[in-house]
Write a structure and sequence with these properties.
Layout (H helix, E strand, L loop, with lengths): L9 H38 L6 H10 L10 E6 L6 H12 L11 E8 L10 E8 L2 E9 L5 E4 L6 H6 L22
Antiparallel strand pairs: 1-2, 2-3, 3-4, 4-5
Length: 188
């Protein structure tokens, strides 16, 4: 056994306190970021779920507070483009804000399911909820209206009736990219 004895001086105590302060600062500075990263991962996992059938898709939309008609308006296969144009980049920004990312699915074929929203805060007609699924996993989700003042926003955003009446929420995009006719209709 080796024993090391030293005399405590003011210089050694100051260095020790500086090192201890640095360690404590590092822990307090990095811990919130780590907690945010874990929270973002949990949020991403909660929105990106496997949905095997129509009942699961309708329940999923209801979990986020959206009442929809149980029969989808659209059920079709879509192709996620390999290169994103401006509209797809804007649409992916909406997805990124809610913990999803379409860039992983470039060039892949996915299924689009669009439902009529029955309870949009402004009581506006023609509002739809769209889910894009790859191998039954949600990879994109949005709420949109294709009217003249159209909008698209994330599934996790629920604008208040007053804010929505004052100005449209989300991106000004009359037609979400997932709804563009880029694939064959497979409506059943």
């Amino acid at each position: 056994m080796i024993v090391y004895a030293t005399k405590l001086t003011i210089r050694k105590a100051a260095i020790g306190l500086a090192v201890l302060g640095g360690i404590l600062w590092g822990i307090t500075a990095l811990a919130p970021r780590a907690a945010q990263a874990v929270a973002a991962q949990i949020d991403s996992q909660s929105i990106s779920q496997k949905l095997k059938d129509n009942d699961a898709r309708v329940s999923y939309l209801q979990e986020f507070g959206w009442m929809v008609e149980e029969t989808p308006l659209v059920e079709m296969e879509v192709q996620i483009p390999k290169e994103f144009d401006g509209a797809y980049q804007q649409y992916n920004e909406i997805q990124l804000r809610q913990g999803l990312d379409l860039t992983k699915y470039r060039g892949k074929r996915a299924m689009l399911y669009t439902y009529t929203v029955l309870d949009y805060p402004t009581q506006e007609e023609g509002v739809t909820a769209s889910l894009v699924l790859y191998k039954n996993r949600v990879i994109a989700a949005d709420i949109s209206a294709a009217n003249a003042e159209g909008f698209t926003h994330g599934l996790t955003e629920r604008p208040s009736a007053a804010a929505t009446a004052a100005e449209p929420s989300g991106e000004q995009n009359p037609q979400a990219p997932a709804e563009q006719k880029t694939a064959q209709d497979t409506t059943e």
